[in-house]
């Protein structure tokens, strides 16, 4: 079951403005893939997105979705959930560069994005002690969310 949330049109307007300011094109397909990602609390795979996209664009093919995902990742509008090869909306839509910590529910697949500067600082400090320069963080924690935990205890 896919949990659908109301799409914030202000968010779509924000990424349209960011794209215009950067001089990059937010094509209708890119915009639609972003909207599909935002419409779900769970992370979406490329093929799930393709199936949803085909509802409005029957001719859509995998490269259409992959190109849109590449663009959205490059612009910082979405995050890749590495462990499940899926995608979620960035909670700040690249308002500022940040590293995220993703909490992934193994029961319902919902994903919560956290931004914890103290965690990132601790990781950077530990890396520095070993003479290591971090270029990317992938911090994902799997478990059971509060909703699923309360369902188990009922």
Report on this structure:
The structure is a single chain. This protein has a single domain (2-151), classed as Arc Repressor Mutant, subunit A (Orthogonal Bundle), CATH 1.10.10. The protein has a three-stranded mixed β-sheet with strand order 4-3-5, with no helix packed on it. It contains six helices and five strands. It is α+β, with helices and mostly antiparallel strands. Helix 2 packs across helix 3, helix 2 (28-38) packs across helix 4 (62-75) and helix 3 (46-53) packs across helix 4. It is globular, with a radius of gyration of 17 Å. Mean pLDDT is 88; it is low at 1-5. Keywords: Cytoplasm, DNA-binding, Iron, Metal-binding, Repressor, Transcription, Transcription regulation, Zinc.
Q: For this structure, what is the CATH homologous superfamily? A: Winged helix-like DNA-binding domain superfamily/Winged helix DNA-binding domain
Low-confidence stretches: 1-5
Number of domains: 1
According to CATH, the fold-level topology is Arc Repressor Mutant, subunit A
Strand content: 5-15%
| Quantity of strands, as a count | 5
What is the oligomeric state here?
single chain
On the 0-100 scale, what is the average pLDDT?
88
Query: Share of helix among residues?
Result: 40-55%
**Class by SSE composition:** alpha+beta
CATH class: Mainly Alpha
Number of helices: 6
Spatial gap, N to C terminus: 20 Å
- Second rung of CATH, namely the architecture: Orthogonal Bundle
Major β-sheet strand ordering: 4-3-5
**Order of H and E elements:** HHHHEEEEHEH
Shape: globular
Q: Biggest sheet, in brief?
A: 3 strands, mixed
Radius of gyration: 17 Å
């Amino acid at each position: 079951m896919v949990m659908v949330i109301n799409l914030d049109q202000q968010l779509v307007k924000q990424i349209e403005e960011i794209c215009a300011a950067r001089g990059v094109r937010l094509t209708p397909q890119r915009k639609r893939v972003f909207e599909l990602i935002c419409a779900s609390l769970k992370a979406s795979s490329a093929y799930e997105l393709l199936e949803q996209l085909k509802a409005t664009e029957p001719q859509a093919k995998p490269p259409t979705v992959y190109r849109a995902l590449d663009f959205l990742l490059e612009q910082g509008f979405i995050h890749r959930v590495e462990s499940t090869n899926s995608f979620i909306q960035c909670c700040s839509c690249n308002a500022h560069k940040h590293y995220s910590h993703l909490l992934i529910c193994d029961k319902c697949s919902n994903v919560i994005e956290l931004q914890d500067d103290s965690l990132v600082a601790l990781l950077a400090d530990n890396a520095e002690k070993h003479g290591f320069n971090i270029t990317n963080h992938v911090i994902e924690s799997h478990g059971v969310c509060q909703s699923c935990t309360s369902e188990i205890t009922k």
